[in-house]
Amino acid sequence: MSQSHKSRALQLLHRLVLPLDRALQAADRQTGCSAAQLSALSVIHFLKANTIGRLAAQEKISAPTASRLVEGLVRQGLARRADGDDRRSGRIEVTVAGLAAVEVACAAREAILADLLVGLSEEEWLQLRAVSGALARELDLGPGSVHPNA
After folding, report:
1. Buried b (16+ CB within 10 A) or exposed e, 12-35
2. What span, in angstroms and rounded, lies between the C-alpha atoms of 9 and 150?
3. At what angle do helices 63-75 and 52-59 cross, to 10 degrees?
4. Which of 25, 31, 106, 118 shows its CA 20 to 30 Å from the CA of 95?
5. Is 125 exposed, middle or buried, given 0-12, 13-18 or 19+ CB atoms closer than 10 A?
6. Half-sphere exposure of 46 (CA within 13 A, CB side)
7. In whole angstroms, how far apart are CA 91 and each of 1, 11, 21, 47, 57?
8. What is the pLDDT of residues 25-44, one digit of tens each?
9. Can you give the pLDDT at residue 150?
10. pLDDT in tens, 96-110
11. Whole-number Å distance between alpha carbons of 60 and 56
């Protein structure tokens, strides 16, 4: 592929990110959670990043930021600390309410995307699946980062 084709593809991808993000934020609002909270819940549950250190590393945030994020999740009843009071080494678990919030957000996001992409042909859906898989691989998201029904 020529450099100009790559450049055009990158420009198009860049222009798509913001409108898609805005559309998906509507789904997050249905849960009463922020995007950061939903991401943390998903990472804790699906990727088993069940300590502050693992969560911080996976989300690429500082440990104090991860700790504050978890504290908010605990206050909301979306997560709980599984071991003792040591906030640095104790395990974190997603509660039933937290998992429900993630599932509601995933379903709402999928519905929004389906509405936005309703005009795609079967071939385009297959291409989108392939490109999405390649992006997930290149971003090192791992198979557990994708909703299990995907």
Report:
1. eeeeeeeeeeeebeebbeebebee
2. 25
3. 110
4. 25
5. exposed
6. 20
7. 47, 42, 31, 13, 15
8. 888 888 889 999 999 999 99
9. 44
10. 999 999 999 999 999
11. 6
Length of the chain, in residues: 150
Structure tokens, 51: 């300590």
**Tokens representing residue 37 in the block:** 């909270």
pTM over 0.70: yes
For residue 73, what are the contacts with CB-CB under 8 A and spacing of at least 6? 37, 40, 41, 79, 98
Instruction: Enter the DSSP assignment of 91.
Output: -
Contact 37, 130 (CB under 8 A): no
Amino acid residing at 91: R
**C-beta separation of 69 from 40 below 8 A:** yes
